[in-house]
Write a structure and sequence with these properties.
This protein is α+β, with helices and mostly antiparallel strands. It has helices spanning 13-25, 32-44, 95-109, 124-128, and strands at residues 2-5, 50-56, 59-67, 80-86, 114-119, 133-139, 144-150. The radius of gyration is 15 Å and the shape is globular. The relative contact order is 0.14.
């Protein structure tokens, strides 16, 4: 498995857009074109924000985005680990942790001292067991949990 910036793996752009849209945007009625536009803006940035892709022999395994703010109800919290997705048949193999690690390494290199993410309540244990600290729960209409992680 390799993790690379989506800029270096453009063959995965449509898959990344599809997975993010289906997981977080489709149910709200947001058009995929809005997501594609935002993903292109992230891709146009130099270094940060950025989207990472995990793949194996060019097979898409997952994605995550490093972005300044991803928590609409708490826009002052950032930088954020956002849109973490691992293909269902690839889960349980440490891919999510590797993708998160790529984002955190970027943040450390940029001098950030902490990172945030939001997640649905059923993912509490996943993040808590991986060093994330719950700082707030029941946020917004999706009743999200907000986590923070200190960076070295």
């Amino acid at each position: 498995m390799i993790i690379t910036d989506l800029k270096q793996a453009p063959q995965h752009f449509d898959t990344v857009a599809d997975r993010i849209w289906r997981a977080w945007w489709e149910a709200d009625g947001d058009p995929i074109s809005d997501l594609v536009e935002g993903l292109r803006e992230v891709g146009a940035a130099d270094g940060f924000p950025c989207t990472f892709v995990a793949s194996d022999n060019d097979r898409f395994l997952g994605t995550v985005t490093a972005i300044q703010s991803d928590i609409s109800d708490r826009p002052h919290l950032g930088p954020c680990v956002a849109a973490l997705w691992v293909e269902p048949d690839a889960r349980g193999r440490g891919i999510a942790q590797s993708l998160i690690g790529a984002v955190l390494a970027l943040y450390v290199s940029l001098g950030f001292k902490k990172a945030y993410l939001s997640a649905r309540p059923h993912l509490h244990d996943f993040y808590a067991l991986r060093g994330w600290t719950l700082v707030e729960s029941d946020v917004g209409r999706d009743h999200l949990y907000i986590f923070r992680r200190a960076l070295p």
